[in-house]
Specification:
The structure is a homodimer.
Chain A lengths: L3 H4 L7 H22 L6 H7 L4 H5 L5 H24 L5 H17 L4 H9 L5 H27 L8 H13 L13 H14 L8 H4 L11
Helix pairs in contact in A: 2-5, 2-7, 5-6, 5-7, 5-8, 6-8, 6-10, 8-9
């Protein structure tokens, strides 16, 4: 579905130029859509921001909805290339999850792909087959996380847990970062990685008290301390 | 800012009717904006969905942007009334955080206010003073969480942590739920509360191994197991 651009009547660029130009268009369009909303962004706006004529832009894209699909597929490509594929060979499931968190977090804090991440996770404007395609790619990542959590429990590396809730808790913690993290703020990326890993895997409660005594239940009784 | 509707030339409803009608308009508008995007939703669409004429709707709202601000303020009202205010009197900071997580989670899983939550957290279409107003209300909640985490550490109820990262990790885990939770799915709300509380506060790693030996660092050396 994404190879459409290679069919277009492009000048005889080198493949690297072609890839570079495609990325630039997708990143520019993503920035505009984040600023002005999908409905509020016209093809004309995107062409102007890319320093192309409208006809020139249509060499590269099929339609506005297809452009949105391409942005989301590009986001999933980045994600799979930078987060999932490199951790697949890690045999120890807990070490795999630690590495996965680090890589996912680094991708989310990266300024250049920030708008791509936002569009991937916030804009439900896709419909039909395009929507199903992106949802299937997201679901594969959730399944991978669930599988790694379950494997880590079986290997005695994590305590018994609900793999699906753990996977979504992991994702929520990590992906929410694009909403608050500022690259020039007090917390740097590498500190954030370390703190988040410890927080998520190590837990917050002090290990020196008896869990039953210090952990209130979901609904503490009225006379609880 | 939200008392605008009491100035309008409304029929002499009882105050409860008025509040009920206002909520219905905000919830209906939120549902449409989630479906079609803010730019893609017209005042005419909202009026029709509310079974009002356009003029009738304008008795209740000032403008489309102001309606968006009202939706977000309504979301923050719900949030403060149902999550923050009830936990403020809880003296023990850890018990306060447990209760806060439960209440926040219940609000997020509630079907009726789901679109309100989405708009509050995903749509950055507000500008200027309106945007600053909502951001200030959100920031107060983050500060409250940060303060409770810091207090729980001082009281020896939690191990030393980074209060800001802990606050946003808490928020990310809890708010991400609206993206995946289905009320008719296998996990029920009360189980979700229990699992998330244990996961976040209790941590995942087994307590019976020596942390240094089993916990890979952010960047494991090349020869790590």
């Amino acid at each position: 579905m994404l190879d459409r651009m290679s069919d277009a009547a492009l000048p005889p660029d080198r493949p690297d130029d072609h890839r570079h130009r495609r990325r630039a268009i997708l990143e520019t369009a993503a920035r505009l859509i984040c600023e002005k909303g999908y409905e509020g962004t016209s093809i004309q706006d995107i062409a102007a921001a890319c320093q192309l004529t409208k006809a020139g832009l249509y060499h590269h894209i099929r339609s506005k909805e297809h452009l949105l699909l391409e942005i989301m597929n590009y986001g999933m490509d980045l994600f799979e290339d930078q987060v999932v594929t490199p951790v697949l060979p890690i045999l120890d499931p807990l070490e795999r999850l630690y590495s996965c968190m680090e890589r996912n977090l680094m991708l989310v804090t990266e300024e250049r792909s920030k708008e791509i991440t936002i569009i991937l996770h916030e804009h439900a404007t896709l419909t039909g087959e395009a929507r199903a395609q992106i949802n299937a790619r997201k679901k594969r990542y959730v399944r991978f996380l669930e599988g790694s959590f379950a494997e880590a429990v079986r290997a005695g590396r994590l305590r018994p847990l609900h793999p699906k809730v753990a996977a979504f808790a992991f994702l929520g913690m990590v992906l929410w970062i694009y909403k608050w993290f500022k690259p020039d703020g007090a917390i740097k990326e590498d500190e954030l990685v370390r703190v988040m890993q410890q927080l998520f895997f190590g837990g917050l409660e002090r290990g020196d008290a008896a869990p039953a005594a210090r952990r209130p239940r979901a609904k503490p009784p009225a006379n609880s301390p």
